[in-house]
Amino acid sequence: MANRERVLTRRTMLGTIAILPLAFTARAHGASCADPATLSAAQKSMRKSLGFKSPAPDVAKRCATCAFFTGKAADCGPCALLSGGVVPANGLCDSWAKKG
Ligand code: SF4
Question: Is 41 among the domain residues?
């Protein structure tokens, strides 16, 4: 396993553990896409480190088709990985994994 893959795997695990409560909170309160300007410094940092962008350059590879996206809404929903809580369905980050 390459170093970059190992770092992403560890980062993915730690990120998932760290933000699960946020994802559940977002779900409990009804997901709505947050204005990026209102995100905390930690949330912005997490998005930046994972290369989050919106919109995604490829419509087939976006948050809505990612295994970490737990939203039901067509436009946005919680991401189990990013500490941003909710993400737009047309976003994308480096940790995208095809929904099974
Ligand atoms: S692509 Fe990234 S930001 Fe989007 S749902 Fe998946 S892990 Fe979250």
Answer: yes
